[in-house]
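thought: user wants a sequence for this fold. calling inverse folding tool.
action: design(structure=
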């Protein structure tokens, strides 16, 4: 299987069928620009079909896992129906392609994860987070509903009370707190993250292949049952791309200042 089509992503085949994936734009904190956002769609079906892969591990180069999406693309999509539909379809495909990938996916969250980065991190079958890492769902701060992955996975992972709090505030969550509330599988010291991820990947990769595959399949039925909720959330998020709140959200995030949303005036 050829992964050379994916720019800014490194692939390393390790022992026992572990595919180590590194998002490799450290100078931009592995931000999910249009190309990487599309890669998050396309990569999982290829891994699913790759007979040499038993487990995939995804992490980030440098100080970040993935620091969100392309704010220029978000801002330019304002009021553009065709572009908004394209973003909707990509966001939908990322979630469903990860859920339907038969190979176990492990995320090793080494630094900040927001936007599409937190989608990939939390939709992985096992999420291992460094103590020094932080994650957040940034939709609310951009003035749009928490679409993407939020409605489908957060309530199942950490309950409705925590989900509502973090999805309606956009507050960052530390590795230790994310583990405490059940949002991630494990939290380990920063220096131990890669070793722990490899240890877990090897344990799964050397176990019974079909038992692992079918366990993932049956557990993901809980998420797939929430498919209509997810599709609804994504549609409501895209409605926000027709609101001036979006423009103010993007500008405030860039300027690192409190937002003054027009809908509150």
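)
observation: tool returned 265 residues.
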């Amino acid at each position: 299987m050829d992964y050379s089509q994916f720019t800014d992503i490194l692939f390393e085949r390790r022992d026992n069928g572990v595919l180590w994936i590194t998002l490799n734009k450290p100078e931009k904190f592995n931000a999910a620009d249009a190309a990487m956002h599309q890669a998050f769609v396309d990569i999982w079906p290829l891994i699913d079909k790759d007979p040499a892969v038993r487990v995939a591990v995804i992490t980030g180069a440098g100080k970040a896992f993935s620091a969100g999406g392309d704010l220029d693309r978000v801002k330019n999509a304002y009021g553009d129906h065709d572009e908004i539909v394209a973003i909707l379809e990509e966001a939908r495909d990322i979630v469903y392609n990860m859920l339907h990938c038969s190979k176990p996916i492990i995320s090793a969250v080494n630094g900040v994860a927001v936007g599409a980065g937190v989608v990939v991190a939390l939709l992985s079958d096992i999420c291992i987070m460094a103590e020094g890492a932080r994650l957040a769902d940034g939709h609310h701060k951009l003035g749009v509903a928490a679409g993407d992955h939020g409605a489908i996975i957060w309530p199942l992972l950490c309950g409705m009370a925590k989900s509502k709090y973090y999805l309606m505030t956009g507050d960052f969550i530390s590795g230790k707190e994310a583990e405490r509330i059940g949002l991630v599988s494990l939290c380990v010291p920063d220096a131990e993250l890669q070793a722990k991820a490899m240890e877990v990947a090897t344990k799964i990769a050397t176990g019974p292949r079909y038992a692992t595959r079918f366990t993932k399949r049956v557990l993901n039925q809980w998420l797939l049952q929430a498919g209509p909720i997810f599709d609804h959330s994504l549609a409501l998020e895209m409605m926000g791309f027709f609101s001036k709140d979006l423009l103010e959200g993007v500008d405030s995030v860039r300027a690192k200042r409190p937002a003054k949303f027009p809908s509150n005036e």
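thought: summarizing for user.
answer: Here is the designed sequence. Residues 81-100 form the longest helix (20 residues).
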